[in-house]
Amino acid sequence: MNNNPSIRPVPGFNPNNDAETLRKAMKGFGCNNDKVVAVLCQRSNWQRQEIAKAFKVMYGKDLINDLKSELHGDFEDLILALLEPPARFDAYSLHKAISGLGTKEHVLIEIMTTRTNAQ
Q1: By C-alpha distance, which of 32, 7, 13 is closest to 22?
Q2: Please, which domain of life does this record's source organism belong to (predicted)?
Q3: Residue 94 contacts residue 107 (beta carbons within 8 Å)
Q4: Structural domains of the chain in order of their starting residue, each with its CATH number
Q5: For a Cys-Cys bond, which of 4, 33, 54, 92 suits 15, CB 3.0-4.6 Å?
Q6: Distance CA 88, CA 105 (A)
Q7: Is the pTM of this model over 0.85?
């Protein structure tokens, strides 16, 4: 299995511009989901973390909380997952895979066999 990221850092990345785009997407009635996707799905995880920090500095609000109030359902789950640092998302996924009835072995195998010791 290849554990190389499929999303590469965007050249000329500006977290302030992206934070502003997200703020505008969430302002007013409803949320412009296309703009949220355009920003968050085309940035590396490190860049998404920087966008969240810039959002907090610029607007005094937590990006994740604002997105939670605007998004719903599976789309909300996906966008919030994109904003998690990889190690935290892995921990969440592992916990969920072993909680409740049955174990989701495919999740355990995917995570445990594709990460380095450092990860």
Answers
A1: 32
A2: Eukaryota
A3: yes
A4: 14-84 (1.10.220.10), 85-119 (no CATH)
A5: 54
A6: 19
A7: no
